[in-house]
Amino acid sequence: MSTSKTWLTQEAYDRLKDELAHISTKGREEIVARIAAAREEGDLKENGGYHAAREEQGKLEARIRQLTAMLENAEVGSAPQGASEEVTLGSMVTVEMGGDKMEFLLGSREIAAENVKVFSEKSPLGAAVLGKKIGQDTEYLLPNGKSNSVKIIAVNPYVG
């Protein structure tokens, strides 16, 4: 199994590390207590509280595995501070595709606000624009095998 690096700002890394520490300790303890309380209510086959707590425990354990892998393979860096000519990790990139403009953050979903569109540098679009300069055209493959061309219109720092 290959490990891939995830680019994170120092702030995102610290936030995720704190989240992992919390859910690995207090979060687990709370779920175990809820499961134990639900068990005491009797018949587990018809105990909705028990099943809900077990499902929440599964989600918590999945998040712990996700955060652990992400932090172990994190590449911590600084987001660009000023407007730039070149697309780098942590940049807000504006591209033109087929006459339409689209703006997105090049990086990890973990560093972005919920309303920000994010493309990983490993995605076809992200890989195509990484390192390109304003005014440059580039292409990437769509899932259907066709090529899509984009033009870099602007590159700005991400302000979360």
Structure, described:
This protein has 160 residues and is α/β, with parallel strands linked by helices. It folds into two domains: 71 residues, Transcription elongation factor, GreA/GreB, N-terminal domain (Helix Hairpins, Orthogonal Bundle), CATH 1.10.287; 76 residues, Roll (Chitinase A, domain 3). The strands form two sheets. Strands 5-4-3-7-6 form a five-stranded mixed β-sheet. A hairpin with a 2-residue loop joins strand 3 and strand 4. The protein is elongated, with a radius of gyration of 21 Å.
Q: Which structural traits does this protein have?
A:
alpha/beta; Helix Hairpins; two-stranded parallel ribbon; 7 strands; 2 domains; elongated; 5-stranded mixed β-sheet; 3 helices; Chitinase A, domain 3
Mean pLDDT: 85
By DSSP (H or I, 4+ residues per run), the number of helices equals 3
**Domain count:** 2
* Major sheet: arrangement of strands: 5-4-3-7-6
CATH homologous superfamily of the largest domain, by name?
Answer: Transcription elongation factor, GreA/GreB, C-terminal domain
Question: What are the low-pLDDT stretches, counting only 5+ consecutive residues below 50?
Answer: none
Return the CATH architecture of the largest domain.
Answer: Roll
Give the overall silhouette.
Answer: elongated
The number of distinct β-strands equals 7
Name the beta content range.
25-35%
Please identify the structural class as seen in this structure: alpha/beta
Rounded to an integer in angstroms, the radius of gyration calculated over CA atoms is: 21 Å
**How widely separated are the two ends?**
33 Å
Task: Estimate the helix proportion, in percent.
Answer: 25-40%
For the record, the CATH class of the largest domain is Alpha Beta
CATH fold title of the largest domain: Chitinase A, domain 3
Major β-sheet, in short?
Answer: 5 strands, mixed
SSE order in H/E notation?
EHHEEEEHEE
